[in-house]
Amino acid sequence: MIEAIRDAMDVSMGRDNKVIVYGEDVGFFGGVFRATQGLQAKYGKSRCFDAPISESGIVGSAIGMAAYGLRPCVEVQFADYVYPAYDQIVSEAARLRYRSNGDFTCPIVVRMPTGGGIFGGQTHSQSPEALFTHVSGLKVIVPSNPHDAKGLLIAAIEDPDPVIFLEPKRLYNGPFDGHHDKPVTPWSKHELGEVADGHYTIPLGKAAIRRQGSAITVLAYGTMVYVAQAAAEETGIDAEVIDLRTLLPLDLDTIVASVKKTGRCVVVHEATLTSGFGAELVSLVQENCFYHLEAPVARVAGWDTPYPHAQEWDYFPGPARVGRALLETLEA
Question: Per-domain residue ranges for the chain?
C-alpha cells in the first residue's frame, strides 16, 4: 500500500509539474510511514518539501496554491491531527468553487493515515471520515488495497475539487486477511494484488463487489472489507461484500442493487457507532430498499468511547462481532 501510494504521487508529479507534495516530515525524511520517500531527491525541494507543524497552515497554503493553478497533494501525518485544519477544509476548500461562481476551483488532496492498528492511542488512531462526508463540496476516499489506492489517488490528484484521501494504517505494510492483528498471507483468492506500472485511474464514486453472495449484503470500506470477508468465511454465510472505496460521492446504485437481491444488510466500519458514516448508509438502504428488506439493517462499529489504547483489538470490529451480526440479521 505504501509503495502504491508513493507510486501514485511519483506518476502524477512526473506527468504534471503543477503537482506539489508537502507536509510534516514528507521531504527529506520521506514521511513517518515513508509514503513520500525519494520524491524530494527526484523532484527537488521546490516540489516535495517539509512544512511547519501547522495543519491549518499546510491546508490553507494548499488552497492558495490551488487557486493559482497548482495541484497540491498534502499529507497530514495522522488523521487525528487534522482538526486545526478543519475550518480551512470546510469553510474555504469545499466552498471555493461555489462562492466564486466557478471562477476558482480547489484541486487539492489531503492525505491522512486513518484508523488504528499501531497502538497509537487516542491521538494516532481515529477514523474521522464522517466529519468530511457531511461537507458538501468535498470528495472522500478510503481505499482497501494497493491497486485501488494508486488509481484512486491519481484520480484524486487530477480531480478539480478537494479530496480527502484516508489511508488505513493496518493495510500499509502488507496483506491483511481480516482474521489477525498482523499482516499475513491473504486467506482468499482476493489478495491485495499487483499494482500496474505507469498511469491509470479508478473512477471516484464507484464501489467494488469483493465477494459475490445472495444471502446478505455487507457494506464496508478500508480495513473492514477484509474483516467482513473473514466473517463470511468463518460463518459460512453466503454474504456479498461491497467495498465502497469512495464514501462521497457514494455508489448508491451498486448498494441498492445488492440489497434488493439479498434482502438483508449489515454495515461495518471502524469509527465510533453514533453518527458514524454507517448511520447514513442505513438510512439510504432503508429509503431505497424498504420493500425488499427482510430484516432491520444492522451496524457493527467501534465503541462510543474515546479511543482505547490497551483495548485496541477489542475496539475494532472483528470477524466474531461481524459474524454475530450476520447470523442475527439472517435469523431476524
Answer: 2-171, 208-331
CATH of 208-331, one of 3.40.50.920, 3.30.70.3280, 3.40.1010.20, 3.40.50.620: 3.40.50.920
**Given the residues 124, 147, 190, 269, the one annotated as active site:** 124
Q: Who contacts 254 (Cβ-Cβ below 8 Å, separation ≥6)?
A: 206, 207, 209, 242
Which long-range CB contacts under 8 A does 234-239 form with residues at least 24 apart? 234/179, 234/319, 234/320, 234/323, 235/323, 235/326, 235/327, 237/213, 237/323, 237/326, 237/327, 237/330, 238/213, 238/214, 239/211, 239/213, 239/215, 239/266, 239/326
- pLDDT value, residue 122: 79
pLDDT the model gives residue 176: 60
269 counts as catalytic? no
> CATH topology for 2-171?
Rossmann fold (3.40.50)
What is the per-residue pLDDT across 88-133, written as a single tens digit (0 to 9) for each?
999 999 999 999 999 999 999 999 999 987 777 778 889 999 999 9
- Residues in Cβ contact with 104 at an 8 Å cutoff, skipping those fewer than 6 apart: 67, 96, 97
